[in-house]
What we know:
The structure holds 2 protein chains of 2 kinds.
Chain A: E1 5-7, E2 10-13, E3 19-24, E4 31-38, E5 42-50, E6 53-56, E7 65-71, E8 74-79, E9 88-95, E10 103-104, E11 108-112
Parallel strand pairs in A: 2-11
Antiparallel strand pairs in A: 1-3, 3-8, 4-5, 4-9, 5-6, 7-8, 9-10, 9-11
Chain B: E1 4-7, E2 10-14, E3 19-25, E4 32-38, E5 45-51, E6 56-59, E7 62-67, E8 72-77, E9 86-94, E10 101-104, E11 108-113
Parallel strand pairs in B: 2-11
Antiparallel strand pairs in B: 1-3, 3-8, 4-5, 4-9, 6-7, 7-8, 9-10, 9-11
Amino acid sequence: DAGVIQSPRHEVTEMGQEVTLRCKPISGHNSLFWYRQTMMRGLELLIYFNNNVPIDDSGMPEDRFSAKMPNASFSTLKIQPSEPRDSAVYFCASSYKSVAEAFFGQGTRLTVV
Amino acid sequence: GENVEQHPSTLSVQEGDSAVIKCTYSDSASNYFPWYKQELGKRPQLIIDIRSNVGEKKDQRIAVTLNKTAKHFSLHITETQPEDSAVYFCAASIGSGNTGKLIFGQGTTLQVKP
């Protein structure tokens, strides 16, 4: 297995634009997590899914953020409209159950100018 | 609320010395405690984990200890090497079954000086 795959690796966009981050979890894993990493706030859990169902989205900063998991092999995190303070590295992680080793993707470095 | 505190935020040691990073957690029901290492520009990767039914676990130069009564756990790295330089994150589980999640500490930047 290639591990958790995220795309794009880098994204530079202008304020106000829509941004979509993509994630393919490890096959057979039924939990998927979206984290945001910044120097100030460390690794923040934004939302997580179990068996494609959103379990907890209390970490989503505001309504501009949304996430979907239409099937077991794909998830998206969307920011609309984007703002400069959204600039961060966004990680997707998956695990075979929700409380177990989480395998992280390479991350997407988002810069909003 | 759900919280994991990690200390220190930065740690500098000489090669060959030991390094200790400590974390405390707030949820007494937490039962899974992983440690992740993140090298510059890379993804966090698991280096060791412990579940609440044991007090200590060791893997070569790294070990983790858990004190459930005090709700704290620690990472110990012995005989440190320059390649141990990285950011280390602790985490604690919140919830269980299909609705559990991991909450991460703020991270410790470890620098090992040759």
